Amino acid sequence: MEQPSAAVENNDHDLRTCILNDAVQKIPIFESYRNFCKTVGQDAMEYPVFEFWYYRFYHKQLDFDYDRSADPVPKTIMDLPVKLMYKIMENLDELERTYLRSMNKSMKDIADSRVPVFEKIDICVFEEFLEWYLDDKLFGGCYKEENGCTAYIPNKSEIKSEKSFMEKGMKYLTSLFRIPKIQVHHLELSSFKGSPTLNDDLLPVPFHAKSVKLHVFDMDQAFLFLSTMNPGELESINLEASSKLKRGQILIFFETEQFKQAKHVELEGYLNENDLLKFSHLKSFKCDLVALEPVDFQRVREIVSTFEKFESCELKRIDIDDKFQIRTISQALGEDVPFGPLLNTITHSYQIPESNEFLKFEIEDKEYYCIIKIVKIR
Question: Which residue ranges does the record assign to the F-box domain (predicted)?
Answer without folding.
Answer: 74-121
